Amino acid sequence: MVRHDYGRMDRLLHRLALGLPALAELSFDLDQRASGAAHRADAVAGQPHVFVTGLARAGTTILLRHLHDSRRFRSLTYRDMPFPLAPNLWRRVSARWRKGRSADAPARQRAHGDGIPVDADSPEALEELFWRIQSGSDYIRRHGLLPHQPDDHVMTLFRRYVAAIMASPDAGQARYLSKNNNNILRLPALQQGFPAALFVIPFRHPADHALSLWRQHRHFRALQRHSPFIRTYMDGLAHHEFGLGQRPFLIGGPPPPHLTPDVPDYWLDMWIRVHRHLVGQANGRMLLVCHEELCTDPAVWRRLLDRLDLPPGQPSRFSAPPGKLPKNPAENRDSNFDPAGLREASALYDHLRLLAHLHARRDEQVRIFRLAS
Prior knowledge:
Blueprint: H1 8-19, H2 21-35, H3 41-45, E1 50-52, H4 60-68, E2 73-74, H5 87-94, E3 108-109, E4 117-118, H6 128-139, E5 140-141, E6 144-145, H7 152-165, E7 175-179, H8 187-193, E8 198-203, H9 206-226, H10 228-236, H11 264-281, E9 286-290, H12 291-296, H13 298-307, H14 331-334, H15 339-359
Parallel strand pairs: 1-7, 1-8, 2-7, 8-9
Antiparallel strand pairs: 3-4, 5-6
Protein backbone atom coordinates (compact mmCIF):
# COMPACT_ATOMS: atom_id res chain seq x y z
CA MET A 1 0.00 0.00 0.00
CA VAL A 2 2.69 2.48 1.01
CA ARG A 3 6.46 2.09 1.05
CA HIS A 4 8.86 3.42 3.67
CA ASP A 5 11.47 4.80 1.24
CA TYR A 6 9.95 8.02 -0.07
CA GLY A 7 12.32 10.99 0.11
CA ARG A 8 11.33 14.58 0.83
CA MET A 9 10.78 15.56 -2.81
CA ASP A 10 8.86 12.35 -3.50
CA ARG A 11 6.56 13.07 -0.56
CA LEU A 12 5.94 16.61 -1.76
CA LEU A 13 5.07 15.36 -5.24
CA HIS A 14 2.72 12.75 -3.80
CA ARG A 15 0.98 15.35 -1.62
CA LEU A 16 0.39 17.54 -4.68
CA ALA A 17 -0.68 14.73 -7.00
CA LEU A 18 -3.04 13.08 -4.52
CA GLY A 19 -4.23 16.20 -2.72
CA LEU A 20 -5.20 18.41 -5.66
CA PRO A 21 -8.20 16.93 -7.52
CA ALA A 22 -7.78 19.40 -10.37
CA LEU A 23 -4.23 18.17 -10.98
CA ALA A 24 -5.36 14.53 -10.94
CA GLU A 25 -8.18 15.30 -13.38
CA LEU A 26 -5.80 17.19 -15.66
CA SER A 27 -3.36 14.28 -15.69
CA PHE A 28 -6.22 11.92 -16.58
CA ASP A 29 -7.46 14.11 -19.44
CA LEU A 30 -3.99 14.56 -20.91
CA ASP A 31 -3.22 10.87 -20.77
CA GLN A 32 -6.54 9.99 -22.36
CA ARG A 33 -5.81 12.24 -25.31
CA ALA A 34 -2.24 11.01 -25.69
CA SER A 35 -3.15 7.32 -25.52
CA GLY A 36 -6.27 7.47 -27.72
CA ALA A 37 -8.03 5.32 -25.13
CA ALA A 38 -11.52 6.48 -26.08
CA HIS A 39 -11.28 4.77 -29.47
CA ARG A 40 -10.35 1.40 -27.97
CA ALA A 41 -12.37 1.41 -24.77
CA ASP A 42 -15.25 -0.78 -25.97
CA ALA A 43 -12.94 -3.43 -27.41
CA VAL A 44 -10.75 -3.48 -24.29
CA ALA A 45 -13.80 -3.70 -22.00
CA GLY A 46 -14.86 -6.92 -23.72
CA GLN A 47 -11.66 -8.78 -22.84
CA PRO A 48 -11.44 -11.35 -19.99
CA HIS A 49 -9.88 -9.10 -17.38
CA VAL A 50 -9.54 -10.13 -13.73
CA PHE A 51 -10.61 -8.08 -10.72
CA VAL A 52 -9.32 -9.20 -7.31
CA THR A 53 -11.36 -7.75 -4.47
CA GLY A 54 -12.54 -8.50 -0.96
CA LEU A 55 -12.26 -7.30 2.59
CA ALA A 56 -8.75 -6.08 3.50
CA ARG A 57 -6.46 -8.74 5.03
CA ALA A 58 -8.21 -11.52 3.11
CA GLY A 59 -5.06 -12.24 1.10
CA THR A 60 -5.89 -10.03 -1.88
CA THR A 61 -2.34 -8.66 -2.23
CA ILE A 62 -0.53 -12.00 -2.21
CA LEU A 63 -3.13 -13.40 -4.62
CA LEU A 64 -2.57 -10.41 -6.90
CA ARG A 65 1.20 -11.09 -6.82
CA HIS A 66 0.79 -14.74 -7.78
CA LEU A 67 -1.51 -13.91 -10.68
CA HIS A 68 0.74 -11.07 -11.84
CA ASP A 69 3.71 -13.46 -11.86
CA SER A 70 2.03 -15.35 -14.71
CA ARG A 71 3.10 -12.45 -16.98
CA ARG A 72 -0.31 -12.52 -18.64
CA PHE A 73 -1.54 -9.26 -17.10
CA ARG A 74 -0.95 -5.53 -16.98
CA SER A 75 -1.51 -3.96 -13.57
CA LEU A 76 -0.86 -0.59 -12.08
CA THR A 77 2.39 -0.65 -10.09
CA TYR A 78 4.25 1.67 -7.75
CA ARG A 79 6.05 2.94 -10.84
CA ASP A 80 2.76 4.58 -11.84
CA MET A 81 2.74 6.69 -8.68
CA PRO A 82 2.03 9.47 -7.93
CA PHE A 83 0.08 9.89 -11.19
CA PRO A 84 -1.73 6.56 -11.66
CA LEU A 85 -4.44 8.32 -13.69
CA ALA A 86 -1.80 9.10 -16.35
CA PRO A 87 0.05 5.78 -16.71
CA ASN A 88 1.44 6.55 -20.17
CA LEU A 89 2.48 10.17 -19.81
CA TRP A 90 3.95 9.73 -16.34
CA ARG A 91 6.15 6.82 -17.40
CA ARG A 92 7.54 8.88 -20.26
CA VAL A 93 8.23 11.87 -18.05
CA SER A 94 9.61 9.94 -15.09
CA ALA A 95 11.88 7.69 -17.18
CA ARG A 96 14.34 10.57 -17.60
CA TRP A 97 15.07 10.97 -13.91
CA ARG A 98 13.92 7.63 -12.45
CA LYS A 99 17.34 5.97 -12.43
CA GLY A 100 18.98 6.12 -9.02
CA ARG A 101 15.92 7.56 -7.29
CA SER A 102 13.65 5.85 -4.78
CA ALA A 103 11.41 4.68 -7.64
CA ASP A 104 14.09 2.07 -8.38
CA ALA A 105 15.05 1.32 -4.77
CA PRO A 106 15.56 -2.32 -3.74
CA ALA A 107 12.51 -4.23 -2.54
CA ARG A 108 11.55 -3.57 1.07
CA GLN A 109 8.86 -4.90 3.34
CA ARG A 110 5.66 -2.89 2.98
CA ALA A 111 4.34 -0.80 5.84
CA HIS A 112 1.96 -3.53 7.00
CA GLY A 113 4.87 -5.46 8.50
CA ASP A 114 3.50 -8.73 7.09
CA GLY A 115 6.54 -9.95 5.18
CA ILE A 116 5.35 -8.86 1.71
CA PRO A 117 8.17 -6.99 -0.13
CA VAL A 118 7.49 -4.14 -2.53
CA ASP A 119 9.53 -2.42 -5.20
CA ALA A 120 8.78 -0.12 -8.12
CA ASP A 121 7.33 -2.92 -10.25
CA SER A 122 5.11 -4.44 -7.58
CA PRO A 123 1.42 -4.36 -8.58
CA GLU A 124 -0.78 -2.49 -6.15
CA ALA A 125 -4.28 -1.10 -5.53
CA LEU A 126 -3.98 2.33 -7.10
CA GLU A 127 -7.07 2.58 -9.32
CA GLU A 128 -9.29 3.77 -6.45
CA LEU A 129 -7.95 7.27 -7.08
CA PHE A 130 -10.07 7.25 -10.24
CA TRP A 131 -13.26 6.59 -8.26
CA ARG A 132 -12.40 9.16 -5.60
CA ILE A 133 -11.78 11.88 -8.19
CA GLN A 134 -14.72 11.06 -10.45
CA SER A 135 -17.43 10.22 -7.91
CA GLY A 136 -16.02 10.33 -4.40
CA SER A 137 -18.92 12.40 -3.10
CA ASP A 138 -21.30 9.59 -4.09
CA TYR A 139 -19.82 6.97 -1.78
CA ILE A 140 -17.22 8.47 0.58
CA ARG A 141 -18.84 9.75 3.75
CA ARG A 142 -17.30 10.98 6.95
CA HIS A 143 -18.66 7.96 8.82
CA GLY A 144 -17.92 5.30 6.17
CA LEU A 145 -18.05 4.11 2.56
CA LEU A 146 -21.43 3.44 0.94
CA PRO A 147 -22.31 0.86 -1.73
CA HIS A 148 -21.76 2.63 -5.02
CA GLN A 149 -23.63 2.50 -8.32
CA PRO A 150 -21.59 4.61 -10.78
CA ASP A 151 -23.60 6.24 -13.54
CA ASP A 152 -23.08 5.49 -17.23
CA HIS A 153 -20.78 8.47 -17.75
CA VAL A 154 -18.40 7.44 -14.97
CA MET A 155 -18.38 3.82 -16.17
CA THR A 156 -17.52 5.02 -19.68
CA LEU A 157 -14.60 6.99 -18.24
CA PHE A 158 -13.44 3.96 -16.26
CA ARG A 159 -13.48 1.75 -19.35
CA ARG A 160 -11.37 4.40 -21.08
CA TYR A 161 -9.03 4.43 -18.08
CA VAL A 162 -8.52 0.67 -18.33
CA ALA A 163 -7.90 1.10 -22.07
CA ALA A 164 -5.23 3.70 -21.28
CA ILE A 165 -3.54 1.35 -18.81
CA MET A 166 -3.56 -1.36 -21.47
CA ALA A 167 -2.04 1.06 -24.01
CA SER A 168 1.37 1.04 -22.31
CA PRO A 169 4.15 -0.59 -24.38
CA ASP A 170 4.71 -3.37 -21.83
CA ALA A 171 1.04 -4.44 -21.87
CA GLY A 172 1.20 -6.27 -25.20
CA GLN A 173 -1.78 -8.61 -25.51
CA ALA A 174 -2.15 -8.86 -21.74
CA ARG A 175 -5.35 -8.64 -19.75
CA TYR A 176 -5.99 -6.07 -17.06
CA LEU A 177 -5.44 -7.29 -13.50
CA SER A 178 -7.01 -5.13 -10.81
CA LYS A 179 -6.72 -5.40 -7.06
CA ASN A 180 -9.04 -3.03 -5.23
CA ASN A 181 -10.80 -3.90 -1.99
CA ASN A 182 -13.25 -1.02 -2.46
CA ASN A 183 -14.60 -2.69 -5.59
CA ILE A 184 -16.91 -4.78 -3.42
CA LEU A 185 -18.90 -1.53 -3.16
CA ARG A 186 -19.59 -1.50 -6.91
CA LEU A 187 -19.54 -5.09 -8.16
CA PRO A 188 -22.79 -4.99 -10.21
CA ALA A 189 -21.61 -1.95 -12.19
CA LEU A 190 -18.21 -3.51 -12.89
CA GLN A 191 -19.78 -6.78 -14.01
CA GLN A 192 -22.04 -4.91 -16.39
CA GLY A 193 -19.24 -2.67 -17.68
CA PHE A 194 -16.82 -5.58 -18.25
CA PRO A 195 -19.03 -8.46 -19.45
CA ALA A 196 -16.18 -10.97 -19.92
CA ALA A 197 -14.31 -10.20 -16.68
CA LEU A 198 -14.05 -12.51 -13.69
CA PHE A 199 -13.99 -11.33 -10.07
CA VAL A 200 -11.76 -13.23 -7.65
CA ILE A 201 -12.82 -12.78 -4.03
CA PRO A 202 -10.71 -14.44 -1.33
CA PHE A 203 -12.05 -14.83 2.19
CA ARG A 204 -10.51 -15.97 5.50
CA HIS A 205 -11.72 -17.62 8.67
CA PRO A 206 -13.65 -14.81 10.41
CA ALA A 207 -11.81 -14.96 13.76
CA ASP A 208 -8.35 -14.87 12.15
CA HIS A 209 -9.51 -12.22 9.70
CA ALA A 210 -11.09 -9.94 12.30
CA LEU A 211 -8.02 -10.17 14.56
CA SER A 212 -5.76 -9.33 11.61
CA LEU A 213 -7.85 -6.25 10.82
CA TRP A 214 -7.83 -5.21 14.48
CA ARG A 215 -4.04 -5.55 14.73
CA GLN A 216 -3.45 -3.69 11.47
CA HIS A 217 -5.71 -0.88 12.63
CA ARG A 218 -3.63 -0.40 15.75
CA HIS A 219 -0.40 -0.81 13.76
CA PHE A 220 -1.32 1.87 11.18
CA ARG A 221 -2.70 4.19 13.81
CA ALA A 222 0.74 4.23 15.44
CA LEU A 223 2.52 4.56 12.07
CA GLN A 224 0.37 7.49 10.99
CA ARG A 225 0.91 9.30 14.26
CA HIS A 226 4.65 8.97 13.74
CA SER A 227 4.50 9.76 9.98
CA PRO A 228 1.51 11.87 8.88
CA PHE A 229 2.54 11.30 5.24
CA ILE A 230 1.37 7.68 5.49
CA ARG A 231 -2.13 8.86 6.29
CA THR A 232 -1.98 11.46 3.50
CA TYR A 233 -0.96 8.73 1.06
CA MET A 234 -3.65 6.27 2.17
CA ASP A 235 -6.44 8.86 2.35
CA GLY A 236 -5.44 10.20 -1.07
CA LEU A 237 -6.00 6.74 -2.57
CA ALA A 238 -9.23 6.28 -0.54
CA HIS A 239 -7.65 3.43 1.44
CA HIS A 240 -9.63 3.78 4.64
CA GLU A 241 -9.32 0.18 5.79
CA PHE A 242 -7.54 0.98 9.04
CA GLY A 243 -5.55 3.65 10.87
CA LEU A 244 -6.43 7.21 11.80
CA GLY A 245 -8.45 7.62 8.61
CA GLN A 246 -10.38 4.37 9.04
CA ARG A 247 -13.92 4.38 7.63
CA PRO A 248 -15.97 1.19 7.61
CA PHE A 249 -17.90 -0.25 4.70
CA LEU A 250 -21.52 0.75 5.28
CA ILE A 251 -22.79 -2.48 3.76
CA GLY A 252 -25.89 -3.81 5.46
CA GLY A 253 -25.97 -0.72 7.65
CA PRO A 254 -23.42 0.98 9.94
CA PRO A 255 -21.53 -0.80 12.73
CA PRO A 256 -23.51 -1.16 15.98
CA PRO A 257 -23.06 2.00 18.08
CA HIS A 258 -21.63 0.07 21.03
CA LEU A 259 -18.70 -1.23 18.97
CA THR A 260 -15.57 0.76 18.12
CA PRO A 261 -12.49 -0.12 16.02
CA ASP A 262 -10.60 -0.67 19.28
CA VAL A 263 -12.33 -4.01 19.90
CA PRO A 264 -12.17 -7.19 17.76
CA ASP A 265 -15.97 -7.55 17.67
CA TYR A 266 -16.18 -4.36 15.57
CA TRP A 267 -14.16 -6.07 12.85
CA LEU A 268 -16.08 -9.33 13.18
CA ASP A 269 -19.34 -7.41 12.68
CA MET A 270 -17.93 -5.86 9.50
CA TRP A 271 -16.78 -9.30 8.31
CA ILE A 272 -20.33 -10.59 8.71
CA ARG A 273 -21.99 -7.64 6.99
CA VAL A 274 -19.57 -7.62 4.04
CA HIS A 275 -19.71 -11.36 3.41
CA ARG A 276 -23.49 -11.54 3.73
CA HIS A 277 -23.56 -8.86 1.04
CA LEU A 278 -21.21 -10.90 -1.17
CA VAL A 279 -23.32 -14.05 -0.75
CA GLY A 280 -26.39 -12.08 -1.78
CA GLN A 281 -24.66 -10.95 -4.99
CA ALA A 282 -22.91 -14.24 -5.78
CA ASN A 283 -22.95 -15.51 -9.35
CA GLY A 284 -20.77 -17.62 -11.63
CA ARG A 285 -18.46 -14.72 -12.46
CA MET A 286 -17.58 -14.17 -8.80
CA LEU A 287 -14.90 -16.72 -7.90
CA LEU A 288 -14.94 -17.04 -4.13
CA VAL A 289 -11.68 -18.51 -2.84
CA CYS A 290 -11.07 -19.78 0.69
CA HIS A 291 -7.67 -18.44 1.79
CA GLU A 292 -7.01 -21.35 4.16
CA GLU A 293 -7.70 -23.90 1.43
CA LEU A 294 -5.68 -21.92 -1.11
CA CYS A 295 -2.65 -22.05 1.20
CA THR A 296 -2.93 -25.75 2.05
CA ASP A 297 -4.43 -27.50 -0.99
CA PRO A 298 -2.52 -27.14 -4.30
CA ALA A 299 -5.64 -28.27 -6.19
CA VAL A 300 -7.45 -25.05 -5.22
CA TRP A 301 -4.74 -22.95 -6.91
CA ARG A 302 -4.77 -25.18 -10.00
CA ARG A 303 -8.56 -24.91 -10.31
CA LEU A 304 -8.37 -21.13 -10.00
CA LEU A 305 -5.78 -20.93 -12.77
CA ASP A 306 -8.02 -23.08 -14.94
CA ARG A 307 -11.05 -20.86 -14.31
CA LEU A 308 -8.97 -17.82 -15.26
CA ASP A 309 -7.63 -19.50 -18.43
CA LEU A 310 -4.06 -19.30 -17.18
CA PRO A 311 -1.41 -21.95 -17.80
CA PRO A 312 -0.50 -24.13 -14.81
CA GLY A 313 2.92 -24.07 -13.25
CA GLN A 314 4.07 -20.46 -12.80
CA PRO A 315 4.09 -20.74 -9.85
CA SER A 316 2.96 -24.34 -9.51
CA ARG A 317 1.36 -23.77 -6.10
CA PHE A 318 0.17 -20.89 -4.00
CA SER A 319 2.36 -19.81 -1.08
CA ALA A 320 1.80 -17.07 1.47
CA PRO A 321 4.31 -15.19 3.64
CA PRO A 322 4.48 -16.33 7.29
CA GLY A 323 2.15 -13.59 8.47
CA LYS A 324 -0.58 -14.72 6.06
CA LEU A 325 -0.54 -18.46 6.69
CA PRO A 326 -3.74 -19.93 8.14
CA LYS A 327 -3.76 -20.56 11.86
CA ASN A 328 -5.24 -23.53 13.64
CA PRO A 329 -8.39 -22.73 15.62
CA ALA A 330 -7.60 -22.02 19.25
CA GLU A 331 -9.69 -21.21 22.30
CA ASN A 332 -7.59 -18.16 23.14
CA ARG A 333 -8.32 -16.75 19.66
CA ASP A 334 -12.06 -17.28 19.87
CA SER A 335 -12.23 -15.80 23.38
CA ASN A 336 -11.72 -12.35 21.84
CA PHE A 337 -15.25 -12.37 20.41
CA ASP A 338 -18.86 -12.46 21.45
CA PRO A 339 -19.85 -16.16 21.14
CA ALA A 340 -23.11 -15.44 19.30
CA GLY A 341 -21.37 -13.27 16.71
CA LEU A 342 -18.65 -15.85 16.20
CA ARG A 343 -21.22 -18.62 15.67
CA GLU A 344 -22.99 -16.51 13.05
CA ALA A 345 -19.70 -15.72 11.31
CA SER A 346 -18.59 -19.37 11.38
CA ALA A 347 -21.84 -20.50 9.75
CA LEU A 348 -21.39 -17.87 7.05
CA TYR A 349 -17.78 -18.98 6.52
CA ASP A 350 -18.96 -22.56 5.93
CA HIS A 351 -21.52 -21.28 3.43
CA LEU A 352 -18.83 -19.30 1.60
CA ARG A 353 -16.68 -22.42 1.38
CA LEU A 354 -19.59 -24.27 -0.24
CA LEU A 355 -20.02 -21.51 -2.81
CA ALA A 356 -16.28 -21.46 -3.43
CA HIS A 357 -16.30 -25.17 -4.28
CA LEU A 358 -19.20 -24.69 -6.67
CA HIS A 359 -17.67 -21.66 -8.40
CA ALA A 360 -14.36 -23.47 -8.85
CA ARG A 361 -15.93 -25.84 -11.38
CA ARG A 362 -16.29 -24.65 -14.94
CA ASP A 363 -17.95 -27.89 -16.14
CA GLU A 364 -21.24 -27.71 -14.28
CA GLN A 365 -24.13 -25.32 -13.93
CA VAL A 366 -23.49 -23.36 -10.74
CA ARG A 367 -26.43 -23.20 -8.41
CA ILE A 368 -26.33 -20.32 -5.91
CA PHE A 369 -27.48 -21.11 -2.37
CA ARG A 370 -28.51 -17.95 -0.57
CA LEU A 371 -28.71 -17.66 3.18
CA ALA A 372 -32.19 -17.47 4.62
CA SER A 373 -33.11 -13.90 5.45
